[in-house]
Write a structure and sequence with these properties.
The complex is a heterodimer of chains A (378) and B (97).
Chain A (H helix, E strand, L loop, with lengths): L2 H20 L3 E5 L2 H9 L2 H4 L4 E5 L4 H4 L2 H12 L3 E5 L13 H6 L3 E4 L3 H10 L4 E8 L4 H13 L5 E7 L2 H11 L7 E4 L1 H7 L5 H7 L2 E4 L4 H16 L5 E3 L11 H10 E8 L3 E10 L8 H4 L15 H5 L23 H4 L4 H7 L4 H4 L2 H11 L1
Parallel strand pairs in A: 1-2, 1-7, 3-4, 3-5, 5-6, 7-8, 8-9
Antiparallel strand pairs in A: 10-11
Helix pairs in contact in A: 1-12, 7-8, 8-13
Chain B lengths: L4 E9 L2 E6 L2 E6 L11 E5 L2 E5 L2 H24 L19
Antiparallel strand pairs in B: 1-2, 1-4, 2-3, 4-5
Classes of the chains: A alpha/beta (378), B alpha+beta (97).
The complex binds iron/sulfur cluster (SF4).
Iron/sulfur cluster binds next to helix 15 and helix 16 of chain A.
Chain lengths: 378, 97
Amino acid sequence: MSMTEHAVDDLLHRLNVAAKAIGRDVAFMEVCGTHTTSAFRCGLPSVTPSNVRLISGPGCPVCVTSQGDIDRLIDLGLRQDVILCTYGDMLRVPGKQGTLEAARARGGNIEIVYSSMDAVKLARQKPGQEVVFAAVGFETTAPATAAAICEAQRLNVSNFSVLASHKRIIPAMRALLAGGEIPAIKGFLCPGHVSVIIGSEVYAPIVKEFGVSCVIGGFEPAQLIAALVCLTELVVNNKTALVNQYPEAVHKKGNRWALALLEQIFEPGDARWRGMGSIPDSGLVLRREYQRFDAALRFNLPEPQEREPKGCICGKVISGAALPVQCKLFGKSCTPISPIGPCMVSSEGTCSAWFKYGNFRQAALPRRQEKELLEVQS
Amino acid sequence: MCLAVPAKLIEQDGHHGVVDMHGNRLPVNTMMTPDAQSGDWILIHAGFAIERLDPEEARKTWALIADVQQAGGERAAQEPPQQGRSSEPSTTPGGML
Ligand code: SF4
């Protein structure tokens, strides 16, 4: 048996001991799409004790993007005078005019880019055309957008702009805790790579004000289980704490160069989240000096109209208030092949993870919730 | 989308770096890790290096996960559990803060 297997066995044993010591249902929430995927991929729900639940929160950037923002993006993608550059993740999200993928098939100029810098490069190569970069993502991704805007400014690239719907995780965590819609959670598994940028100490006020623990964790199976062990043992010991279990990459104050870039280009502003509405300071808006790079202003885009695909409860799934199987469309008309909502489109979406790794799902439900579920479905 | 992958930096010139990823040479922008040097392990996200990985910290974390928390569990067993939650965020043995 390898070292890691030993460690995993050991950790699972401790998780079971701690879960037994608690003796009642306890829930934690992760707010990172990469954690969602890693947890399901390694079968975590099937090995966690039945009274310990890890709920998926608003951690998938594609899923949290409001429908209005997606509609705007697709409208832009259909314009003949625009080349829309996007990360591949956004391609299949349905809007009122179909998906970006369909827009491309209909002649829209849509380019998939690996990096925001590729969009600036393209704008320089095609000075006669407008290049718009679809800027989605949390704090992990936002500095790359800021860097692209800096570069466009430095090289005076006037045909480059961004349609930005970046999100900040801490205001969303606060909104969830204050809203009271989600099941009472005892702690957060905090996002590893967002924390690389924002640092660990920014979670301290959440621990203090709301009395929940925050454990920053890595993405390997053993790291995920270690984070759950830590969260669960804290409950046993009747403690709340901020714990950084990913210190090889996450520092107290985050990455100061990335934060300086963000600070230079953006300021916090209200943002619309799917299913969670507008959350104060949860977005990043371009500072006045950089507004000439704002695609919404450049193309005079109308205010987005919020709506949800009919029957889709993604909004509730995102905020942890409902499980995918509580959606009437789950696995029926909505599957990864013909997805209806973004939680099924995105590989990081909770519905997609439940669909793909569905065998584990019964094990993931504490008995009481199974009963509630049956009531919802009947 | 917040996926970031580790790779070894093998060349560095201003903001332009080259990493070795499973034997492939890939360009990476290092403006957010100006202190990274050739030979360092870095985390890459969307074409940017977002942090240097500290191998010593990684080793310590694993040691802590394996040993010290265990000690923390034993110590906690000796202490009477606190009533209510502590008002200040405390750190557990696994914590680095
Ligand atoms: S199963 Fe499909 S329709 Fe239902 S919430 Fe998930 S993505 Fe939306």
